[in-house]
């Protein structure tokens, strides 16, 4: 199992390119189940989760080829409507095949994803939404078994704004008979990207990017190509790295990113004292002289993303004062706290609120990755810590960050991947 070895304290400067968004790719790829033919998905990041989605789609008969960052997907022959546990347990986003399979073929057997490192993550909204469209769904033997004739339009108001449920119901509704209205739909850019892709495939969707979607079902869709949007969480993670250990006499510039998706994070970084320059597709950051404590509360887009909460905690650990981090999306998502404390952070958690008392310095240690974004926070803290930090079990990072160690090393960090050790 690979680990990262970091020698902290190196100052970062220079330019890196953002990768395509993991969470957009994981929605776009299963959308190819909706129409037979060949698709090209450009700017697809090379990640373990993308590989897992590819394997899953291949078990259903799709042919997938990667040339650099372009995936060519041929969905002309679909032979199975099942997402087995062995794939779903690796990646919850496997559930995205449910909507397109029910919508087009009226049949899907998708393993229940179960919990994850930070607690239960229900899929009730996916199931209720599809039932409203006319699917008959049973949950038995650990599987969601959905059957339908042609789905019909319906009015759906989600109790909770859910990225996955919005994506699934949207993909099912595009081929339903009649009009579907989804209220309290997720507005995350990755769901908007899915909406644009479905429109390019011939779907009729109004309100893409808003919380009110109107979908007029069509009889058939056709293949299309697309360019995956940049990964706002990767960009945000790199910005925090720069805020923590950037060179004050230079800057870190992130190119091919999407500043318009980043306001919640960039404004908070300005509050911290960093200087940011935002272009159309780049962000430049000069770190603050000292890090001011800034509270955050995670929320749905366009609020502060839960996927950036752990990284923000690493930044606040070196702030000149105390900050409060409130997690409203996943109340238990604090697996990184005990590991950050091993590096010298001063954090206490009560219910869904973490209190971070800034310290003057962190000290390198061995720490364990527990999930994707938690691992990112450990790397950030390791970059700022004195001495050597070893981040174990980096396969979590490989799920969602494309060559993070190379990107950070190109900015001047001393970080390398070491393999062959048992942990
Ligand atoms: C997606 C992202 C993940 C991100 C999360 C929140 C992907 C592949 N993953 O996950 O990185 O952290 O959005 O921005 O895009 N909920 C229910 N019932 C459901 C579904 C969700 O109660 O059926 C709740 C969840 O417990 C959570 C909230 O809704 O409290 C939001 O979750 P959701 O947006 O569905 O997250 P995912 O789509 O799983």
- Order of strands across the widest beta sheet? 22-23-1-24
How many helices does DSSP assign?
Answer: 14
Main sheet attributes: strand count, strand direction, barrel closure: 4 strands, mixed
C-alpha Rg (nearest Å):
21 Å
- Straight-line N-to-C gap: 7 Å
- Which small compounds were modeled alongside the protein? uridine-diphosphate-N-acetylglucosamine
- How many beta-strand segments? 24
The low-confidence runs, each spanning 5 or more residues with pLDDT under 50, are none
Mean pLDDT value: 96
Strand content: 15-25%
Q: Give the oligomeric state of the chains in this entry, treating copies of one chain as homo and distinct chains as hetero.
A: single chain
Shape, please? elongated
Helical percent range? Answer: 25-40%
Structure notes:
With 423 residues, the chain is an alpha/beta fold. The chain is elongated, with a radius of gyration of 21 Å. A hairpin with a 2-residue loop joins strand 20 (346-350) and strand 21 (353-357). The model has no long low-confidence stretch (mean pLDDT 96). Helix 4 (98-105) runs parallel beside helix 6 (163-173) and helix 10 (309-316) runs parallel beside helix 12 (372-384). The strands form 6 sheets. Strands 22-23-1-24 form a 4-stranded mixed sheet. It has a 4-stranded mixed sheet with strand order 2-15-17-16, covered by helices on one side. It has 14 helices and 24 strands. The structure holds uridine-diphosphate-N-acetylglucosamine. Uridine-diphosphate-N-acetylglucosamine is lined by residues 23, 26, 92-93, 121-126, 160, 162-165, 186, 190, 306-307, 329-330.
């Amino acid at each position: 199992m690979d680990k990262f070895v970091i020698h902290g304290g190196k100052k970062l400067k220079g330019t890196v390119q953002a990768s395509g968004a993991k969470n957009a790719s994981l929605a776009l790829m299963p959308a190819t189940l909706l129409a037979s033919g060949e698709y090209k998905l450009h700017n697809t990041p090379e990640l373990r989760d993308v590989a897992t989605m590819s394997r899953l789609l291949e078990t259903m008969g799709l042919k997938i080829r990667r040339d650099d960052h372009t995936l060519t997907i041929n969905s002309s022959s679909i032979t199975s409507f099942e997402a087995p546990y062995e794939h779903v347990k690796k990646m919850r986003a496997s559930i995205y095949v449910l909507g397109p399979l029910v919508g087009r073929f009226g049949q899907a057997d998708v393993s229940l994803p179960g919990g994850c490192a930070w607690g239960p993550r229900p899929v009730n909204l996916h199931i209720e939404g599809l039932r409203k469209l006319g699917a008959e769904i049973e949950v038995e033997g650990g599987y969601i078994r959905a059957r339908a004739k042609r789905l019909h339009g319906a009015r759906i108001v989600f109790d909770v704004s859910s990225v996955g449920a919005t994506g699934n119901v949207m993909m099912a509704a595009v081929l339903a008979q009649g009009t579907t209205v989804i209220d309290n739909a997720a507005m995350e850019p990755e769901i908007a990207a899915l909406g644009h892709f479905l429109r390019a495939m011939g779907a009729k969707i109004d309100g893409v990017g808003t919380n009110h979607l109107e979908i007029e079902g069509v009889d058939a869709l056709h293949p299309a190509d697309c360019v995956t949007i940049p990964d706002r969480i990767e960009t945000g993670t790199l910005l925090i790295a720069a805020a923590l250990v950037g060179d004050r006499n230079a800057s870190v510039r992130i190119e091919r990113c999407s500043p318009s998706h980043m306001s919640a994070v960039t404004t908070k970084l300005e509050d911290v004292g960093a200087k940011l320059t935002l272009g159309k597709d780049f962000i430049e950051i000069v770190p603050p002289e000292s890090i001011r404590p800034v509270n955050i509360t995670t929320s749905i887009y366009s609020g502060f993303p839960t996927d950036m909460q752990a990284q923000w905690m690493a930044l606040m650990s070196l702030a000149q004062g105390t900050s409060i981090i409130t997690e409203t999306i996943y109340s238990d998502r604090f697996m990184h706290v005990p590991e950050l404390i091993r590096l010298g952070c001063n954090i206490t958690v009560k219910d869904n609120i973490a209190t971070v008392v800034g310290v003057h310095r962190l000290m390198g240690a061995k720490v364990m990755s527990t999930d994707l974004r938690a691992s990112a926070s450990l790397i950030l803290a390791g970059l700022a810590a004195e001495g050597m930090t070893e981040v174990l079990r980096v396969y979590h990072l490989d799920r969602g960050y494309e060559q993070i160690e190379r990107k950070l090393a190109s900015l001047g960090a001393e970080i390398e991947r070491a393999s062959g050790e048992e942990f």
